Amino acid sequence: MSSLTEARTEVKDSILDAIGHTPLVRLSRLGAGLTPQLVAKVEALNPGGSIKDRVAVALIDAAERDGHLRPGGTLVEPTSGNTGTGLAIAARLKGYRVIAVMPDKMSKEKIDLLRAYGAEVVVAPTAVAPDSPESYYRVADRLAAEIPGAFQPNQYRNLANPEAHYASTGPELWEQSGGRITHLVVGVGTGGTVTGAGRYLKERNPGIVVVGADPVGSIYSGGEDAVKPYLVEGVGEDFWPETFDPAIVDRWIQVSDKESFLAARRLAQVEGILAGGSGGTALHAALQVAAEVDDPEAMIAVILPDGGRSYLSKIFNDAWMTQHGFLERGHDQSVGDVLRAKREAGEVPSLVTVGAHQKVRDAVALLHEHRVSQLPVVSAHDAGAIVGSIGERGLLKHAADDPAVLGAEIVDVMEAPFPAVSSGDDVRDAVELLVGDRQALMVTEDGRPAGILTRADLLEALAR
Q: What is the pTM of this model?
């Protein structure tokens, strides 16, 4: 027998066998000057690019085992993208159809990736209550009920989710750290990772501290009264999933969108690891914990749930970051300076908006009352979500064509939203956005609308 035939092969039967066993990497550069060790579990190296590959296979296996999913069936799942990708990969090999229902704040890259794997994508609004018929949770429920042979694994209720992490993520962390892990930092979404991995680790060492990293605006650390929209994807929730065991988390750390995104960018630039915003959320929290721990034997492990390639148009795009107020540039005079000067002079009221489903006559009354020429149009579900704009010039044109337009809803006549600029942007850069018929800009502070500046406002500022 030749040595070639005696050699042990390393060929996997399918790409599903490549899920898991992701590396634990020391963050020696970010951790320089810190007393404990700081290590990261890099889940982007799963075939689908995220930790959700582990869950997706477990959800399908459980559905097949329990008789919920039969050959040729359809999987319908509400997802921020990553679970849908894992399901789509597995479904390709097992012969199932996949419909992923996603909130509209998700990146275009995630949607394109799902479609590349053959999944069908349905997009639902983010800024609605979880029990709203329009929410992506309820849309998924409806599709699963309407489509023959469809099944919703539902990662928010299915205990196969935390069990997947109890069986794989937790043991890997324990083995790879040689049992030296003392702190686990996890961004909490469905709660599956922190519940499953955290439970396993605490069974091996009850002294391990589990830290939940949570976006500002999520229910976990803020409670139901503090729930509000945020931009980081795939982490935090606005309801309590059944897959989350709150007893596992010893401590919560709130992290803002800006802190999350800047941490993710810093990780790429310093350690060469491209992670998503939820990884930035967990990393920011882990660095805070590490700064507080004065024990050289301690090991703080942070889970980086996915990679950054799905966020190149957002987190790693300077223009997007600047537009939302997460990056600032040096300037002589900012649009924020102009807005503040107008407010101090009493020339501009607080941000005045009109709802998409109000009548056109309501907008006319507001324009007259506040002596402004243009108004941003906001979603009926979220007063901070700008969906369009309306102004005197456009209204006059509509009224000339059809005087009955005053009784129409604003959504029928509104125009595109004003171009958005951060309050920290230079006035000269902002002026360049006012091309063609654009007459005004939306000024944002910390990613939220703060006020309107017109072409005349900016030109007057430059003249001064």
A: 0.71
Catalytic residues: 52
Q: Is residue 331 over pLDDT 60?
A: no
8 A C-beta contact, residue 227 and residue 128: no
| Domains within the chain, CATH numbers bracketed | 10-49+159-316 (3.40.50.1100), 54-151 (3.40.50.1100), 320-463 (3.10.580.10)
Contact of 236 with 282, CB cutoff 8 Å: no
Count Cβ atoms below 10 Å from residue 193 Cβ, excluding itself.
29
In 8-80, at which residue ranges do the beta strands (DSSP E only) sit? 24-26, 37-42, 74-78
Q: What is the pLDDT of residue 163?
A: 98
Please return the burial class of 292, using the count of CB atoms within 10 Å of its CB with bins 0-12, 13-18 and 19+: exposed
Q: How confident is the model at residue 385 (pLDDT cuts 50, 70, 90)?
A: confident
Residue corresponding to tokens 């430059």: 462
**Structure confidence at residue 329 (pLDDT):** 58
Top mean-pLDDT range of 148-152, 205-209, 235-239, 378-382: 205-209
CA separation (Å) from 316 to 36, 160, 235? 29, 34, 18
* 297 burial level (CB within 10 Å; 0-12, 13-18, 19+): exposed
**Pairwise CA distance, residues 297 & 313, whole Å:** 40
Residues 6 or more apart in contact with residue 428 via CB below 8 angstroms = 462
CB 221 within 8 A of CB 247: no
Alpha-carbon gap, residue 49 to 68, rounded angstroms: 27
Query: Rg (Cα) of the chain, in Å, rounded?
Result: 25
